[in-house]
UniProtKB/TrEMBL annotation:
InterPro entries found in the cross-reference section: AAA+_ATPase, ABC_transporter-like_ATP-bd, ABC_transporter-like_CS, ABC_transporter_ATP-binding, P-loop_NTPase
Keyword field: ATP-binding, Nodulation, Nucleotide-binding, Transport
Pfam family, one: ABC_tran
Gene3D superfamilies tied to this protein: P-loop containing nucleotide triphosphate hydrolases
Stated family: Belongs to the ABC transporter superfamily.
Domain ABC transporter: 2-229
GO molecular function: ATP binding
Organism: Wandonia haliotis
Protein name per UniProt: ABC transporter ATP-binding protein
PANTHER family found in the cross-reference section: ABC TRANSPORTER ATP-BINDING PROTEIN, ABC TRANSPORTER ATP-BINDING PROTEIN NATA
Amino acid sequence: MLEVRNITKRYGIKLALDNVSAKFEPGKIHGILGPNGAGKTTLIRIINQIITPDDGGVYLNNRLMPREQLSSLGYLPEERGMYPNMTVSDFLLFMGSLRGLHKNESKAALDYWMEKFDIQEWRGKRIEELSKGMAQKVQFISTVFHNPDLLILDEPFSGFDPGNVKLMRGILREMKEEGKTILLSTHNMNSVEELCDHVVLIDKSKKVLEGTVQEVKGHHSEKLYAVQFSGNMIAFATALWTGFDLVDKKIIGENRYIARVRMVGDSNFRSLLETLVPKIDIEGAWEELPSMEEVFIRETTVTH
């Protein structure tokens, strides 16, 4: 279990983090979210021990994380940096040596990742010859080359086309299944929806929410439900009466519809179904929760 407890960090008079705490369980993908300047990168650098907090600390299994633990950490910064005159193979083998891998271990890791990304033909290319997306793959490989237990990725999908984003998501899911702790800082809310088990949202240096994706979305529920049914639309609308508002409807076939309904007062999902069952044939019904993008916008545009 990785925890940050009561982290505060100032740069002169600017408060970058204000008493931020969060827990990151192993075997899960955690989203660290927030607008530009919110404090995300500062938090990541504190976890990496690149900078130290003014107050609070980073804990691993209830103990202050020792510096030696950094050897089992992989960090992909938002600011990319590689040696342009080195070949892909030489760069990755060099990074492996910095992480303490033996030569045979580095060669095995190189073979594995070249095959994994199907980029064997890149081995002899110099870094400066690579496109942005190709260079991004190589930097990601350098981040995971030593098989770290804790992975911190800052905007890892930047520069990737949709095909490579899908590939990266698959690799991160595999690492999650291996029990690794993955911290993902991104503005790509689709990736958050697809990947993250748990999110922490920081805004104006403070943590404004934390929880599973479903908990966070549920917290912003607007009591809006969709009902797919066959039958008479007028009968459906009449049955709603005063306990529910019909928001909109869509025709999906002959006498088949999807209607969105908002609860009024004390009405709930069960009472909605009890009201409708005698009047129409329900094919499906579900709550329509806001997207993570909508949650992000709501939380970061209000004053805390």
